[in-house]
Recover the amino acids of this structure.
């Protein structure tokens, strides 16, 4: 049976969600400036590419990044991030990306480096295509059209490369934190 | 950051139930704003102005917090409409203005929600909706930590700059990002671990029972819900 999340892990997830929100503010400004929410993801490529691979590595458990992304989605509700302000399906949208990162981590958890690179690459590169289908599925065809206009094959290839690099940076950051008492505490 | 949006006042809007505010300001009114035919948009904006007056929030304060969204969105949407919409220049311009108004209504209600909802109401509202308190606590921690982490990031950036770090695009950027992210993450996790130690020492158990303060639904809640549902229904009539 899977162990339940401890108080320390729950609070660390909450704190990392707050950190991600603050680091995503530049993307919110870009999205507000253009009125196209997908641009917030492009502006935040650095943060998305680092944070999504980092969270599963820090917690070393399946489900942590899904919960983290779900909380990020809830915090994003009044902000122009992940979708227009007040648009509730973006909570599900964000949770999906957490679930997706969890899935990749589950598949490749034997090699932390590969899982980090793949999470970064898929979140940004492949994310372009998935976003279109996901917004259509969530009943937001306008957002799907906006994403489709941006997600060209060139974007997907370039995004995958950049995402992979960011994932690797995320892995290097994790390596710096791996042996700290804090990392050990949240992994218990 | 979000905590900074909350404006403490004693108004009918502030005293509404969390779920009334959540459904009306984040779902029903914004949805009406997007679905309403253009002639109904001024009515929705008028309703918003009435609600803003009822909230006792100073208009200048509201404008100060929202202009960063309103001005770029209005300009951006109109410019994009001029480029991408079909029809004559006048039609494209009016389409851009209508779309900008829809976005403004959406953001205005979202901001009003943030301004009249104390972050502490969010986990309490989630607890009342029978969402396990351990997740409610996690969300509350996230909201509460926003200003704290924001300050810490600022001081870490200042400290790194004082040591000669530069965050311009260069081949050294990855190492500078790592040099910045490691202390930021360490500081964030340290704060959360300290907080969890405090909670554990006070006997908090994420899987145990917790007492939730009761909340009654008032007449004002019913009226606000009725108004928002009515506006949404009228918006659906073509």
């Amino acid at each position: 049976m899977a162990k339940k999340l401890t108080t320390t892990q729950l609070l660390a997830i909450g704190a990392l969600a707050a950190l991600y929100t603050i680091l995503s503010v530049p993307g919110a400004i870009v999205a507000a400036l253009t009125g196209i929410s997908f641009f917030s993801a492009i502006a935040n490529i650095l943060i998305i590419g680092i944070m999504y691979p980092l969270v599963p590595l820090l917690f070393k458990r399946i489900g942590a990044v899904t919960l983290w992304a779900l909380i990020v989605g809830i915090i994003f509700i009044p902000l122009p991030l992940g979708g227009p302000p007040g648009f509730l399906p973006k909570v599900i949208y964000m949770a999906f990306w957490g679930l997706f990162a969890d899935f990749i981590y589950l598949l490749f958890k034997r090699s932390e480096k590969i899982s980090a690179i793949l999470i970064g690459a898929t979140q940004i590169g492949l994310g372009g295509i998935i976003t279109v289908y996901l917004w259509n599925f969530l009943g937001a065809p306008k957002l799907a059209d906006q994403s489709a206009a941006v997600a060209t094959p060139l974007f997907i290839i370039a995004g995958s490369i950049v995402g992979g690099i960011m994932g690797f940076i995320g892995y290097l950051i994790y390596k710096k934190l791996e042996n700290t008492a804090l990392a050990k505490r949240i992994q218990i | 950051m979000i905590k900074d949006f909350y404006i403490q006042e004693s108004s009918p809007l502030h005293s509404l139930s969390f779920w009334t505010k959540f459904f009306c300001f984040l779902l029903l009114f914004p949805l009406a704003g997007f679905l309403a035919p253009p002639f109904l948009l001024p009515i929705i904006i008028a309703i918003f102005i009435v609600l803003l007056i009822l909230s006792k929030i100073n208009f200048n304060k509201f404008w100060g917090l929202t202009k960063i969204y309103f001005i770029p969105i209005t300009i951006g949407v109109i410019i994009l409409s001029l480029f991408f919409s079909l029809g004559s220049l006048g039609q494209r311009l009016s389409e851009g203005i209508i779309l900008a108004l829809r976005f403004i209504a959406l953001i205005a209600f979202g901001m009003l929600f943030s301004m009249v909802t104390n972050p502490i109401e969010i986990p309490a509202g989630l607890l009342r909706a029978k969402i396990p308190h351990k997740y409610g606590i996690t969300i509350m921690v996230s909201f509460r930590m926003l200003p704290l982490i924001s300050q810490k990031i600022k001081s870490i950036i200042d400290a790194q700059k004082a040591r000669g770090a530069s965050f311009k695009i260069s081949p050294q950027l990855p190492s500078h990002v790592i040099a910045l992210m490691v202390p930021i993450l360490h500081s964030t996790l340290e704060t959360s671990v300290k907080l969890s130690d405090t909670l554990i020492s006070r006997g908090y158990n994420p899987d145990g029972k917790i007492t939730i303060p009761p909340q009654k639904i008032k007449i004002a809640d019913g009226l606000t819900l009725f108004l928002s549902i009515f506006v949404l229904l009228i918006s659906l009539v073509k």
Summary: The mean pLDDT of chain A is 85. The longest helix of chain A spans residues 112-137. Chain A touches chain B through 53 residues (CB under 8 Å). Residues 59 and 187 of chain A are 5 Å apart (CA to CA).
